[in-house]
């Protein structure tokens, strides 16, 4: 059965592409047949893939120049067991990718603006849930977070109030920047590094959410 995982957030700059690429790579390394759809006009995931070192194909499929129905048809036509969508932070693209998703990852950094954007994102997801017979699962991903700080504890408390699954936090690490520069995922570039361990924990949460359906 094909699974579609959308990575989305109403606010830009929260690390969507890093999470999309690295989570996709971790799932591919675990034996899943994975493809990534880059629907963001900024093309960050496509740039990441240009050296050809990623463990999965990346399809550049921006929604700007096409209808939602045609775009959705093209996404559904991708031959892969797991399709990860890196989504632009605007209502049209978010709505289209959320409507297709079985599972949604919502990155959030320790910022009041991010929390407001997360509320807006969850409101869009809740609206989509009303039109679906199956359940859309959500994993909130605390990102760029130092677990030792008061900010981290406050963010985890805030996120828990939303009533969704919360992934283990991911820290702001230079490893992710180096991986982008080399066109690799952290799983292949720095296996066993702290950054890789955090991505593996996210992959664990994704697989657990899929098993519980």
Explain briefly what this protein structure is.
With 213 residues, the protein is an alpha/beta fold. Helices cover 46% and strands 15% of the residues. The chain contains nine helices and seven strands.
Molecular structure report:
There is one protein chain. With 213 residues, the protein is an alpha/beta fold. Helix content is 46%, strand content 15%. A seven-stranded parallel sheet has the order 3-2-4-1-5-6-7, with helices on both faces. Helix 6 (150-160) links the parallel strand 6 and strand 7. Helix 1 (16-29) packs across helix 9 and helix 4 packs across helix 5. The longest helix is centred in the middle third of the chain and has 18 residues, at 112-129. It is globular. 44% of the residues are buried.
Q: Helix tally?
A: 9
- Averaged pLDDT, please? 92
Main sheet: strands, sense, barrel? 7 strands, parallel
The structural class is alpha/beta
Identify the strand order in the major beta sheet.
Answer: 3-2-4-1-5-6-7
Distance between the termini: 13 Å
Could you give the order of the helices and strands?
EHEHEHEHEHEHEHHH
Unreliable sequence segments: none
Strand content: 15-25%
Q: Please compute the radius of gyration using only Cα atoms.
A: 16 Å
Portion in helices: 40-55%
What global shape is seen? globular
Total number of β-strand segments?
7
């Amino acid at each position: 059965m094909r699974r579609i995982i959308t990575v989305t957030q109403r606010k830009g700059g929260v690390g969507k592409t890093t999470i999309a690429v690295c989570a996709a790579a971790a799932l591919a390394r675990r034996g899943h047949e994975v493809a990534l759809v880059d629907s963001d006009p900024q093309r960050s995931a496509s740039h990441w893939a240009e050296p050809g070192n990623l463990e999965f194909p990346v399809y550049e499929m921006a929604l700007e120049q096409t209808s939602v129905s045609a775009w959705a048809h093209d996404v559904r036509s991708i031959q892969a067991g797991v399709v990860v969508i890196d989504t632009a932070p605007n209502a049209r693209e978010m709505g289209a990718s959320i409507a297709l998703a079985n599972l949604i990852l919502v990155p959030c950094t320790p910022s009041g603006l991010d929390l407001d954007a997360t509320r807006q994102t969850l409101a869009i997801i809740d609206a989509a849930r009303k039109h679906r017979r199956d359940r859309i699962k959500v994993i909130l991903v605390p990102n760029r977070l130092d677990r030792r700080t008061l900010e981290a504890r406050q963010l985890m408390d805030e996120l828990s109030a939303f009533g969704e699954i919360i992934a283990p936090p991911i820290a702001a690490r230079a490893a992710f920047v180096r991986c982008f520069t080399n066109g690799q995922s952290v799983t292949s570039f720095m296996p066993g590094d702290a950054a890789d361990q955090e991505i593996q924990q996210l992959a664990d949460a994704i697989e657990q959410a899929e098993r519980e359906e």
